[in-house]
Write a structure and sequence with these properties.
The structure is a single chain. The chain is an alpha+beta fold. The protein has a single domain, classed as Nuclear Transport Factor 2, Chain: A. The protein has 4 helices and 5 strands; from the N terminus they run αααβαββββ. It has a 5-stranded mixed sheet. β2 and β3 form a beta hairpin. The radius of gyration is 22 Å and the shape is globular. It starts with a helix and ends in a 12-residue tail after the last strand. Pfam families: SnoaL_2. InterPro entries: Cyclase_SnoaL-like (IPR009959), NTF2-like_dom_sf (IPR032710), SnoaL-like (IPR037401). This is Nuclear transport factor 2 family protein. Keywords: Signal. It comes from Achromobacter veterisilvae.
Length: about 150
């Protein structure tokens, strides 16, 4: 009986120690995937452009989209006006893939609920907890696709 009590006490001690450590681990640095998804949601779904850029984008931000200049200012200038012109725009995250410092978000971007939209792949590079580089490719969703597989 005494041995069972000692074993039970030891198990409870280990469980209590594990629970005490767990919150400290959860409060640690965010993963690159968490950083990019939080940025993407704040920027494109919540439309809080200034805060998203301030919180998640590094000052030396490099842009590979040929229609957008480097740095954070072009994003801060462009997206509020875009959202004002397209108040019903919708951006849906379909999948997120992360490997090392790169995070990819495959998403559906629509200017309005009636719009078929575009399939977009955004690729972000994260360095020291900040997004420092971005690539994207997009493809219109056709009315009559050649197959029934869908783009997502």
């Amino acid at each position: 009986m005494r041995m069972k009590l000692k074993s039970l006490a030891l198990c409870m001690l280990v469980a209590a120690a594990t629970l005490a450590i767990a919150p400290a681990r959860a409060a640690g640095p965010q993963s690159n995937k968490d950083i990019v998804v939080a940025f993407f949601r704040m920027m494109f779904q919540d439309r809080n452009v200034d805060e998203a850029v301030r919180r998640y984008v590094g000052p030396g931000y490099t842009q590979h989209n040929p229609y957008m200049q480097d740095g954070v200012e072009p994003m801060v200038d462009f997206f509020p006006a875009y959202f004002e012109q397209h108040p019903q725009s919708i951006v849906e995250i379909k999948r997120v893939i992360a490997e090392g410092d790169l995070v990819m978000i495959h998403n559906l971007w629509r200017d309005s609920p009636e719009d078929r939209g575009q399939a977009v792949v955004d690729i972000f590079r994260v360095e020291n907890g900040k997004i420092v580089e971005h690539w994207d490719v997009s493809q219109e969703i056709p009315e009559n696709p050649a197959n029934k597989n869908g783009m997502f």
